[in-house]
Amino acid sequence: EALYADLGHFGRKPIVLAWLAIVFPCLLLNYAGQGAYVLAKGGTVGHPFFEMNEGWALVPMVVLATAATVIASQAVISGAYSLTRQAVQLNMLPRLEILHTSEKQSGQVYMPRVNVVMLLVVGFGESSKLASAYGISVTGNMLVTTTLLFIVMTRIWRWNIWPAVALTVVFALIDIGFFASNIVKVFEGGWASLAVAFAIILGMWTWVRGSRYLFDKTRRNEIPLDFLAANLLKKKPQLVSGTAVFLTSDPLSAPTALMHSLKHYKVLHEKNVILSVVTAPQPVVPDSERVKLETVNELFMRVTLTFGYMEQPNIPRALAICRKQGWKFDIMTTSFFLSRRSLKASPNSGMPIWQDRLFIGLAKTAADATEYFQIPTGRVVEIGTQVAI
């Protein structure tokens, strides 16, 4: 499971090779050997792995087990960073601070807030309680993986429903047996796994639901971009030199930052780009598919940047690709306008008030958009608005 969690760091080929050539054969030998030892001893065994290696082999095996524990822990930690990053890219969590630890491997990241959450293991106090939580986590993960396998077989691989069901049932029966045998350890420390899982699910559900309500509410109050662009072309305000890039999640509507800029400054840049960032349902997007340009009129242009869910968005670097498509992007003559929303809870939002407050709390923890999209801070203008949700 740790190997698969690290797909975002190493890619598919190294994972498959390591699993088939090393990990899987070793696991089979390890567990089959321990099983045979337990049967030979009549079931009265405490720690079969170490009892099998009494004498001179005991110390080397303790060293090996310790090293394996450290490696496995690091794999799980790296996997937690990778999966959280993908959840952020898929807009299932608010933007979190992501620090890259390698200049060559974009997948090697460190997330301080995720690291703080993982410090919860210190609170277990005893390894036996941690083992109970670990057992429920692993077997629960196996059950979820089986469910996801069924979805992949039917929706992506396009299998016939009955072969997919038959194969899923085989795995599910085994997984349910393992999970049921571990669920009795809930009061021995296993409750922590369930509590963390519940908290993550609640947070993701609240973020997705709140984001949808926020999008719908702001869109109702916005003007269609094509309508605004046509009117501004007929009756031009004072034009200033340079390019203005307005970040928005809805490229069909006039961004809030643009409307407030017109309202307060009474000016418009010579070139105005309505920029939206989209996450593709694939890990990496080639540069040839990164940028989509659409001219609205001589004043406005829509630009859509597409990134894979394993990629870290870099807007300036992506916009540089636009030069090949005719837009001569120059960072030194470009200003980026961002809308910063101040959210307030409202009983009429469609969500319970407690979920409103949770969503607002999550929004406050979101990393700064300037840093997340790697925009030079000296080229950014933020315009604040207040929204009741």
Structure commentary:
The protein has 14 helices and 8 strands. It is α/β, with parallel strands linked by helices. Helix 11 (256-265) links the parallel strand 3 and strand 4. The chain has a 6-stranded mixed β-sheet with strand order 5-6-4-3-7-8, sandwiched between helices. Among the domains are: 128-220, no CATH class; 223-388, no CATH class.
Low-confidence stretches: none
Distance between the termini: 39 Å
Instruction: Find the structural class using helix and strand composition.
Output: alpha/beta
Mean pLDDT, all residues: 87
Largest sheet: 6 strands, mixed
Q: Determine the strand fraction and express it as a percent band.
A: 15-25%
Can you tell me the overall shape?
elongated
Helicity level, as a percent range? 40-55%
What is the string of helix and strand elements?
Answer: HHHHHEEHHHHHEHEEEHEHHE
Can you count the beta strands? Answer: 8
Q: Enumerate how many helices there are, as a single number.
A: 14
C-alpha Rg (nearest Å): 26 Å
What strand order characterises the main sheet? 5-6-4-3-7-8
